[in-house]
Amino acid sequence: MTPKLAEIWVYLAASPLLGLTVTLVAYQGAYWLYRRAGCNPLANPVLIAVTALVALLTLTGTSYPTYFAGAQFVHFLLGPATVALAVPLYAQFRRVRTLLVPVAAGLVAGCLTAILTAIAVGKWCGASTPTLLSLAPKSVTTPIAMGVAERIGGIPSLTAVLVIATGILGAVGARWLFNSMRIDDPAIRGFAIGVASHGIGTARAFQVSEEAGAFAALAMGLNGALTALLLPALLPLLRAWMGA
Amino acid sequence: MLEALTQLLLFQLAGEVVARGLDLPVPGPVLGMLFLLAALVLRSGPSHELQATSHGLLQHLSLLFVPAGTGIMVHLHRVADEWLPLVAALLASTAATLAVTALVMKLLMRPRTAAAADAP
User: Residue A30: which domain range?
Assistant: First the structure.
């Protein structure tokens, strides 16, 4: 680098402008790729953007806190966006009344299964306690999952990645699983996808049918709220179980 | 937009104050979401402005996970050390959650569909 360029780099590397800009550029590039791939869940834009950013930061020797000083302006919006989830949730609210019993029972069963099987399998395979606590909220939408992980002693950024992976797994595998189980009611298929794999699964369900998508969106919101209330309340029991 | 954004921040603030004040383990923004949902039920629906602002914010929800997701670079060693339990837990738990939720619902919905099928 010429001295002038080096000088500019020193300035930019220390300013929040660069972290904010690369976040937006990386996401828009990743979103473009996702659209080009026909919205294939395997081409998840968050996954692509995060991979690109980690590679970029590693190559330029930039530390995560330096990057985050700029990216925090995007990160801050997660709070109001979580509050805003109440609006689509309200829109689905009337549908619950007609199917109150199956929806409530499916929700509670799915929520507990998601938390308990993740911890049980992880523990059985030898995961550490912070990793198990980061796994526990993996089925709920990222802003809620990260908030819960932080509250219960998990690692929010690890949770964010596990949530995305869960969403992709559900979006890719649900069709095959439901077909082999002979479950063909779109309301059930959609609701189960929403409980297990939040927004990424919901986006996939909307591609299949409007009804499945609406039920997935409803399930995503309800499971987010239930997990946020249930998981911290279960924490003492879970900690005793994990032996920590 | 400004009014709706202020409204969202006020609900978030209320959620944060209640969560910290009462020492609740629930994240503040989640409480804020539940407060807003209660308010929407009471007022029977969001204002046009709140509807539009929420839509705009949620349309690009994925972008908001990127800064935190990038934080994985600090924990790469943990993923490398514990990749087996992570992969096993994600696969087993996602499949189990899909299957259990669907089976419970199917079991409880059967009477309704059977009754409908029996009807002339």
Answer: 3-76
